[in-house]
Amino acid sequence: MHSDLLEAHAVQEIVNFDIDQPEVSEVRTDPRHRDVGGSITDMPFADSTFDWILLANVLPWVAEDHLAISELARVLKPGGDMLISVGTDLSRLNVGGPYARRGYSLQALTELCASAGLQITWQREHTRLAMHLLNVTWRWQYRHLGRGRRNLMPRFAVLACGRADRWVRLGDAWGLTVLAHRP
Question: Which residue(s) pair with 180 in the sheet?
Fold first, then answer.
């Protein structure tokens, strides 16, 4: 999902990590991709391996989130940053999934990061009413048209909803993104 973003930056290697062996390198043409499978609570990497970590909606799935964040802090180099995106504890998006928890408040995520020696240096709440409406539309089309059928959400609609969510701020935030720094 984030491959285009990562490939646009001058990084030497992009490690795609998931509980099951990911298959990102098989579908991407960029040779910098490397796929690794394993548990986020016991990662198969040496201490201080990564300059940057992108953790997109992973923590709500992990029952032992304190072990996961400690492991991530262990493999992050001193001076490195981790971008963490999660649903908030108000999130309606997480209802019905096999999540370990519904979401996080900023305070809970800050405390979790601090327990692993990470400092939150930036934060933003997001995913309000406009993005919820987009999500409802996407789920409808997926259910009624199927996965391989016509996509009713052109790129401009997705971008417009994202901008509207940021500027208008209608409703409670259902998403939270923080930048955590390892001193």
Answer: 82, 120
Q: Which CATH number fits domain 39-127+173-181: 3.30.505.50, 3.40.50.150, 3.40.1190.20, 2.40.30.10?
A: 3.40.50.150
pLDDT in tens, 155-167: 677 777 777 777 8
Cα separations (Å) of 158 from 129, 133, 137, 161? 13, 10, 11, 5
| Phi and psi, residue 39, nearest 5° | -90, 135
3-class secondary structure, 100: coil
Largest Cα–Cα distance in the chain?
49
Distance separating alpha carbons of residues 84 and 120, to the nearest angstrom:
10
> What integer is the mean pLDDT of 126-144?
73
Backbone CA torsion sign across 100, 59, 182, 119: negative
Which of 162, 161, 160, 142 is closest to 151 using CA atoms? 142
Rounded to whole angstroms, the Cα distance separating 15 from 33 reads 6
β-partners of residue 130 are: none
Q: How far apart are CA 89 and CA 99, in angstroms?
A: 12
Dihedral sign, CA of 165, 169, 171, 173? positive
